[in-house]
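Protein in question passed on here:
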Amino acid sequence: MDAFNKKYSLREKKYAKTKIALTNAFIERLKKVRFNEISIKEVCESVEVSEATFFNYFPQKADVVSYYQQIVSLKISYEIRENSAGMSPQKLIEFTFDSIAKEIEQPYLFFEIISLFTAERKKPKEIMITPAEKFYAHPACEGIEGVPVQSLEDLFLSLVKEAKKKKEIKNDIKAEDVALTLLAILVGIPLAIDIENFGRIKQFYRSQLSLLWKAVGAP
């Protein structure tokens, strides 16, 4: 990793480290405080940058949450790539849900993200992530700089299409419909269960996926 680190100029390193630090500081607050109550001034003070610097990275306050979601999706894509050998598309989808379950163990963060974009009636904004940002966001993930940023919607769709090619899903079922169902499971399960059951979210996901495979699986 040291050799890779040296590929970046001081300017690239500083930019990436500051952007990641601001994101982490903001998300840590979002685990405890409502989105609208988060003080940008306090976030910036914790990272020792000006408020102008924050808005240079994130023109809108909600942009930092969109960026965080992309960083999480990037790690999931990386983990799929690293563990894909010998795994069927359906198993990769289950693996994806297991990875997501780990990321949303903090229920209040999940609820705030969902309520934010529901209130705005739009999907999270796509924000460019440079190779340096990928590296500093997940320094333990060797080679993550070469992993493309992909939304969970696109990830699910690509895996479902591969599952159809492998005859794991009935031929007459649209891949888009199955991908949409996966998104419904992803968001719906955390909203349907009680907070005290969040520790079992992986089990709930697996149970719903099992029902889905029975419904769409090839005979």
